[in-house]
Every structure is written in C-alpha cells, then in structure tokens.
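Re: duplicated header lines in exported structure tokens

Our pipeline writes sequence and tokens for each protein into one text file. With two proteins the header for the second block appears twice in some exports. Here is an export where it did not happen, for reference. First protein block:
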Amino acid sequence: MTLNKINVGLLSLVFAFSTLNAQQHLDPEYVKVTNERAAKIVTKLDLKNEAKEKAVSNIIAQQFRDLTEIQDGRDAEIKKVKEDTALAKEKQNEKIDKLKSKADESIAKLHKSYIKKLGKELSEDKITEVKDGMTYGVLPITVAGYNDMLPNLTAEQKDYIYKALVEAREHAMDAGSSKEKHGWFGKYKGRINNYLSKQGYDLNKESKDWHERVEQREKAKK
C-alpha cells in the first residue's frame, strides 16, 4: 500500500470520527431551529395531511442537520490543518483539498438520498417547492427578473436560463449558509450573463433600462 493511499485512508477515518462526534453533541437549540425552518417550508406546501406534513418536516429538518454535521466536521479538520505550523503550505493545501473532496462526496450522496426520501412522500412539483424553500425562492425570482428585463428572450434562451438556475439550486440546497447559497446563484448568473452577451445582449444597457421601467411602474402605483 502506498503512503498516499494510507494518508487518504487516515483522512477518511478522521472525517468519519468528526461527523460521529458532531452527531453525538448536536446542539438542542440547533435541532429546534432546524425543526422550525423545516416546518416553515412544509406549511407552504399546503399538504392538508398532518401525518405527511410531519414526515416531510422530519426529512427536511434531518437534512439540515446532516449537512451541518458534514460541514462542521470538515471545517474543524481544516482548522486543525491550518494551525499545524509543522506542515509546509503545500502539504496543508493538499490535506485541505482532500478533506474538502471527501466532504463533497458525502454531501453528494446525502443529496441523492434526501431527494429519494422526499420522493416517497411528495410529487415532483412539491419537491421543487421544497427546493425553492431551502434556497429562499431565488430561482423563480431570478427567472422572473430575466423575463421582465429581457421580454424578447427566445424559447431557447429562456430554457438555458432556467436549466442553469436549476443546477445552481441543486448546489445551493447543500450550502451551509445564506451567503454560500446566494454565492451559487451568483456563479450561475455569471454564466447566464456571459451566454446572453454572446447572444448579442448589452446587459449593462438592458439592466439600466429595466430598472428605469421598474421605477416607473412603482411610481404609477402611488
């Protein structure tokens, strides 16, 4: 067995132990917060079935907690690596990259499992509502914004925008903070804007004109 394989194995064990430790010491206050966050999402689903509401709420709340356990475990180990002054910077970066990669793999597996669990309780439309609930409704808001700013978008362009934002939402669902969630959408909006620029849109001008139209609409309401 090579030294590299041994190091990877040790990192895996460290990460697994950190996750287990996080599970054992999960803050009761955070459990309460995750339950409340999940309940807010479920309320908007209007399921009209108390048993199903409880089941879905538990699935969502547990997802929040599972994500936190993985992310906190990763961050704690990264902190230790950064504080290890005996390690050269190159070695630190190598270990940090491995820890991040391992966490990403765990999160990807968790994501698939989570969607599968929701699928046993909800329709595809309701699952989409859950995804939007976990990401502050950024996708529909952003789609509406592009359509309002660029009323002459073709069907193909609209499809590109929507699919890009759907991909962003899948990543944002797993992000650990509001900033990170919005960061994913920001990244994909950058791709969308580059695409639209290549399609011939002057987005600086379009954005300026749009904001002026929005202001006029708001004034007209008063």
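Second protein block, exported in the same file:
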Amino acid sequence: MKKLLTVCFLLMACIFAIPSTSSAQETGFLTPGESTFLYMDTRVLNETYDNEAIKFVLQRDGVLRLMSRNGAHDYLSFTGYDDTNAGIGYKIRKIYTMFPSMQFFEIIADRGAHAKNCGYWIIGKKDGQWVTYVSIDSLAAMGYTPGEWHQINTALNNDATGRFILTSRHEYMPPGAQYGYQRRFAIDLQLQLFWDQNAQWFGIRRL
C-alpha cells in the first residue's frame, strides 16, 4: 500500500510539473502602439533600435528596405510574397515582450482596397545581426495558404494575458448578395506566436 501511494504521488508530481515547465519557457507580449502605414505619400519611417538610428524606406518599385538612418548600412529588404509589388503597402510597428523586455518590429504587407495580404515578417536582432524570426513561410508551415486570398490581423495582449494572436480570414459573398458592402468574412486560421526563451526564437502554435 505504501509503495502504491508513493507511485501515485510521483505520477501526480510529474503531471503538474510538465505544464509549469512548458509555460516558463514562454514570454508574453505587451500591448503595442499603432502601426505606421508606408504607402503612396508616406515612404519613410524613422526609428531607433539598440541605440542606433534606423529607417524603413519604401522604394518606388515597392521594395521595403531597412537601413541605417545615414544610409551607410543596408540591413534587410522586403517584397511581396506573390511576386508582384503593384499597389503594395507596409504596416510597421514595434512590439515588446515582457520579462525579459525585448523589442521587435512587425511588418504586414497588403495591397488593394480590400487589403489582400502579401507578406508578413517579425524582425529583430540576434547576436548583433538583423534576422527574420517569422515570415509567411513560418505561417505556411502551420497551415496558412499563401497562394489564396487572405487578410492577416494580429492582437497582442488584448485579453491582458500577454498572448500574441494572429488571425487569417478571407472574404466571401453570401447567397443572394450583389454588392461589395454585403461581403462577409470567415476566419480560416488562428495562431498563437510566443517567444521561446529556451530556443531564443519565436514559437508558433495553432489554435
């Protein structure tokens, strides 16, 4: 009987230890500020990162570049995932983790009046170098279908839990609808993004 109780105690300890270990690896996010949309007349966004003055520049060919403020260093470039930059715009905002505090940039590219998605990136520095932590390829590995029509929206800390939720949705015309204002939206994918402290990289899970 004593041996049975010992086994039960060890089993319960393992069950309760596993979730706490898993959650301890994840870092939540703070509520971010508004995005800046680079398109048409607004083509430069000045920022600072890691005590360096930087800028995002939207070129006439639709390519977005991240470079030092003085133009001496060209760090990263971004272009439409669907091989065309016609009418493309980029929404850019800083996002922050909590405990530890880290800073990244989220970039969402879309085009047209209905904001069809054509790119998604989360970038930051790793070991002093600019890297892309999350891209459309990362989302595709979790079920996103880049070749189809989608909008991407993200919500960080909306429910005060620190969760980072990415939602993909598509629009459709319900039966009998004839006009654009009658269109509806359906969610086709929801993902949770998180900072994995063990991996020192972004993790993604499907909801």
